[in-house]
């Protein structure tokens, strides 16, 4: 067991937690949060792969690291768009949940 | 070695505990606070994985995500709280738990069966890095070897902003993005947003400048600039320019335009799209980074502020 | 000499960590928002200050040392402003009830 494997397992659990939250939490904002948790787990996986590729003085493979950096920024822009959609839906008095049942009540 | 492993184990447990809390806690607001903390912890994990560039990005972007989600949580609090009773029945939760566990187990199995020796692109990167004149391998990958990714990413950011703006009600289109904020000049927010931006802007330029040779670069620097702008906006000291403003639109696309123009110039001068002529790589990369830093900063800040809501909707 | 410096670092960082621990216990144990903020900011400012003090002699050059001090000052400012905001909201909620 090394630290690299440890963080790989941590990433695996994070993805599982995110999937569970995405399905179980009824509030849309919580679903966005859970989706971000999945995303960060995937990024951490990349980080582990990068760390495994350490060679000749570099602490990690810079290619996956660079991909993660672009990934983090793109994930942020997607989150911002999702949040804006949610706020607009709320301002327009639309349904606050994703279930049909909620549509019927509001 | 052993102490390091114990420390990493505790760190991983802490990350997982905070993550589980953001999923399980009742109030959405509390969950977003937890998520902000989680972002900071992840930055520490990135340091432990020897990826300081990713750590800086995670810390900076994590703070912006925190602001975005906290504001949304406050605004949506009434509707989100009403949904709490819709938690699915035990049966469905068990099913979701089983699915999540299966995914985790599969990924964990993958972790233990990764190829040995680990595939790596380090030799290729270090062999070519000298031709870029950059000391930071990650910046070399971002701006030279995989420049197309970075270019397309800048485009994605602009598209996301256009999509956010397009949500504006008809009456508010072209107006000032975000809700109007009244701030008194005696407010501590106003004090902070007079005190911090000079320091923050200097640090942003510093991070951009050292990014060529040390951890840092345009993403981290741009995020800092965005944060400084948001600080002043949220204190009510400055107002973002209206969406229809031409100057704003040029600022948004400046980075992509410079990147694209230099990339196209590479075709006749260096033989390929996004190739740099011999010996010119570093100054050209710095020019692209400087323009991108400004555009990324403006884009990220406006993404947090949101669409023009106008007066009608408060 | 270097042993003395290392001993100073260990001592200062450990006392810093102690203040962090005390602050966290206060955060968990104190009865209301204002006293919790008090525990948090006092302990964290002093704790981080001690950690930075401890790390200063380990800095490779003057720039590194300056960066450490700037980090401490930035955290002080951020902590002060955020606690003021939280306290203001807490008081508004108390008087509202």
Description of the structure:
The complex is a heterotrimer of chains A (106), B (314) and C (97). Chain A is mostly helical. Chain A contains 4 helices and no strands. Chain A has a single domain, classed as Helix Hairpins, CATH 1.10.287.3510. Chain A is 78% helix and 0% strand. The longest helix of chain A has 30 residues, at 62-91. The model of chain B has no long low-confidence stretch (mean pLDDT 88). In chain C, helix 1 (2-29) runs antiparallel to helix 2 (33-55) and helix 2 (33-55) runs antiparallel to helix 3 (62-96). Chain C has one domain (2-96). Chain C is elongated, with a radius of gyration of 17 Å. At the A-B interface, helix 1, helix 2 and helix 3 of A face helix 1, helix 2, helix 3, helix 4 and helix 5 of B.
Brief digest:
The complex is a heterotrimer of chains A (106), B (314) and C (97). Chain B is an all-alpha fold and 314 residues long.
Secondary-structure map:
The complex is a heterotrimer of chains A (106), B (314) and C (97).
Chain A: H1 3-24, H2 28-52, H3 62-91, H4 100-105
Chain B: H1 2-24, H2 28-48, H3 52-82, H4 90-112, H5 122-132, H6 137-145, H7 147-165, H8 188-210, H9 218-234, H10 246-270, H11 281-305
Helix pairs in contact in B: 1-2, 2-3, 3-9, 3-11, 5-6, 6-7, 7-10, 7-11, 8-9, 9-11, 10-11
Chain C: H1 2-29, H2 33-55, H3 62-96
Helix pairs in contact in C: 1-2, 2-3
End-to-end separation of chain C in angstroms reads 60 Å
What value does the Rg of chain C take, in angstroms? 17 Å
Mean pLDDT of chain C: 88
Which radius of gyration of chain A do the C-alpha atoms yield?
A: 18 Å
As a percent range, the share of strand residues of chain A is: under 5%
Number of domains of chain A: 1
CATH architecture field of chain A: Orthogonal Bundle
Instruction: Give the DSSP E fraction of chain C (strand runs of 2 or more residues).
Output: under 5%
Oligomer: heterotrimer
Fraction of residues of chain A in helices? over 70%
Largest sheet of chain C: none
Q: Counting H and I runs of at least 4 residues, what is the number of helices of chain C?
A: 3
Give the biggest beta sheet of chain A: none
Topology of chain C as a string of helices (H) and strands (E): HHH
| Silhouette of chain C | elongated
How many structurally independent domains of chain C? Answer: 1
């Amino acid at each position: 067991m090394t630290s690299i494997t440890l963080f790989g397992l941590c990433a695996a659990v994070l993805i599982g937690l995110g999937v569970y939250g995405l399905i179980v939490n009824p509030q849309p904002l919580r679903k966005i949060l859970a989706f971000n948790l999945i995303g960060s787990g995937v990024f951490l996986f990349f980080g582990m792969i990068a760390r495994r590729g350490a060679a000749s003085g570099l602490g990690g493979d810079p290619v996956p690291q660079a991909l993660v950096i672009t990934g983090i920024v793109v994930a942020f822009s997607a989150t911002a768009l999702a949040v804006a959609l949610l706020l607009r839906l709320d301002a327009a008095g639309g349904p606050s949940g994703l279930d049909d049942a909620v549509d019927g009540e509001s | 070695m052993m102490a390091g492993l114990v420390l990493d184990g505790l760190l991983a447990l802490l990350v997982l505990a905070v993550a589980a809390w953001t999923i399980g806690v009742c109030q959405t607001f509390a969950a977003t606070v937890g998520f902000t903390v989680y972002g900071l912890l992840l930055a520490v994990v990135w340091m432990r994985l020897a990826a300081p560039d990713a750590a800086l990005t995670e810390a900076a972007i994590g703070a912006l995500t925190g602001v975005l989600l906290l504001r949304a949580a406050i605004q949506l609090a009434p509707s989100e709280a009403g949904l709490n009773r819709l938690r699915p029945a035990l049966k469905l939760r068990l099913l979701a738990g089983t699915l999540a566990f299966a995914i985790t187990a599969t990924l964990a199995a993958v972790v233990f069966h990764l190829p040995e020796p680990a595939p790596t692109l380090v030799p290729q990167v270090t062999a070519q890095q000298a031709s870029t004149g950059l000391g930071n391998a990650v910046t070399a990958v971002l701006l030279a070897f995989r420049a197309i990714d970075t270019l397309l990413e800048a485009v994605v950011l602009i598209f996301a902003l256009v999509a956010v703006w397009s949500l504006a009600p008809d009456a508010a289109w072209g107006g000032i993005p975000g809700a109007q904020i009244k701030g008194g000049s005696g407010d501590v927010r106003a004090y902070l947003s007079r005190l911090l931006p000079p320091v923050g802007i200097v640090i942003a330029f510093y991070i951009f400048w050292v990014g060529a040779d040390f951890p840092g670069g345009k993403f981290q620097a741009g995020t800092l600039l965005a944060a400084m702008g948001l600080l002043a906006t949220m204190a009510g000291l400055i107002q973002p320019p209206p969406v229809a403003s031409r100057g704003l639109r040029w600022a948004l696309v400046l980075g992509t335009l410079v990147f694209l123009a230099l990339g196209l110039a590479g075709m006749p001068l260096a033989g390929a799209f996004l190739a740099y002529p011999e010996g010119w790589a570093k100054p050209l990369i710095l020019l692209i980074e400087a323009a991108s830093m400004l555009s990324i900063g403006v884009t990220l800040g406006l993404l947090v502020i949101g669409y023009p809501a106008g007066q009608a909707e408060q | 000499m270097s042993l003395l410096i290392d001993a100073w670092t260990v001592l200062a960082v450990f006392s810093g960590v102690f203040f962090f621990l005390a602050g966290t216990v206060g955060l968990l144990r104190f009865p209301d928002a204002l006293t919790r903020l008090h525990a948090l900011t006092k302990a964290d400012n002093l704790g981080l200050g001690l950690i930075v003090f401890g790390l200063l002699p380990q800095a490779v050059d003057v720039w590194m040392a300056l960066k450490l001090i700037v980090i401490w000052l930035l955290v002080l400012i951020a902590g002060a402003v955020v606690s003021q905001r939280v306290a203001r909201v807490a008081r508004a909620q108390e008087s509202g009830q």
